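Project outcomes to date are best conveyed with an example. Our students and postdoctoral researchers have been running inverse folding experiments weekly, and each run begins with a structure described purely in tokens. The record below, which covers 245 residues, was selected by the lab manager from last quarter's runs and is presented without edits.
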């Protein structure tokens, strides 16, 4: 009778034999890290694919104070209108425009309007003349003249430019540099000593080492296979998705 557990055990044994028979010479870590640094292509190619959707799955994010968060496709230029926002009890009303990314990447020079809510009845709300503002290069605008309790309809007018795309690209180059440092530390502190012992052993000893100690983690498999892909312990707050073009 078919026993899936026995089949799995047999497959595991065969897999260990295959790995034990491989060339135990440790991988060229510098070559692997060099490939990792090239995860993003040259900027011109990267930027061209940004507009076609083949580079990063990111969105524009619009924030009004601490309570309202709106999103739009990365290349959208359609006006984005929030629900009516109420001025905070203390301090200015803050508008923010940024990319949804691993780091804070502002989308600056974005026009916005604030329309004061005058009345609201069964026929709908009535708004006053719009107040025109522009979110500066830093992607954040504070509006101190928003008096407590006043309500406004806020509309953003996004216009993502080449300069914004370049800033987004540069932000991920910084993320890759941090991850490269993390991978190098993992190799030097944990995996390189393991490889040294593995390389010095003969076939029988290597098989025994693999059988006694399961593959330690996805990080170990990544380094052993040459796919430098960090695990969930990477020092990034929000993981991006990017593809080589």
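After processing, the design step wrote out the following sequence:
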């Amino acid at each position: 009778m078919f026993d899936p557990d026995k089949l799995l055990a047999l497959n595991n044994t065969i897999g260990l034999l295959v790995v034990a028979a491989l060339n135990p010479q440790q991988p060229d870590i510098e070559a692997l890290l060099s490939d990792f640094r090239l995860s993003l292509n040259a900027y011109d190619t990267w930027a061209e694919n940004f507009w076609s959707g083949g580079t990063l799955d990111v969105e524009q994010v619009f924030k009004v104070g601490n309570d309202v968060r709106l999103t739009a496709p990365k290349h959208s230029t359609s006006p984005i209108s929030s629900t009516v926002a109420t001025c905070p009890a203390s301090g200015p009303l803050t508008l923010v425009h940024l990319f949804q990314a691993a780091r804070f990447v502002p989308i600056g020079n974005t026009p916005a309007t604030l329309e004061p809510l005058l009345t609201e009845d069964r026929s709908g709300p009535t708004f006053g003349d719009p107040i025109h503002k522009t979110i500066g290069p830093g992607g954040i605008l504070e509006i101190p003249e928003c008096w407590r309790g006043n309500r406004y309809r806020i509309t953003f007018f996004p216009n993502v430019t080449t300069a914004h795309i370049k800033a987004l690209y540069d932000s991920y180059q910084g993320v890759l540099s941090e991850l490269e440092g993390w991978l190098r530390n993992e190799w030097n502190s944990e995996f390189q000593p393991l490889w040294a012992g593995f390389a010095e052993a003969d076939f029988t000893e290597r098989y025994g080492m693999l059988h006694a100690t399961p593959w330690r983690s996805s990080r170990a498999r990544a380094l052993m296979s040459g796919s430098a892909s960090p695990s969930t312990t990477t020092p990034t707050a929000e993981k991006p998705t990017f593809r080589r073009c």
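Confidence is low (pLDDT under 50) at residues 10-21, 226-245. The two ends are 49 Å apart (CA to CA). The training component of this project remains on track.
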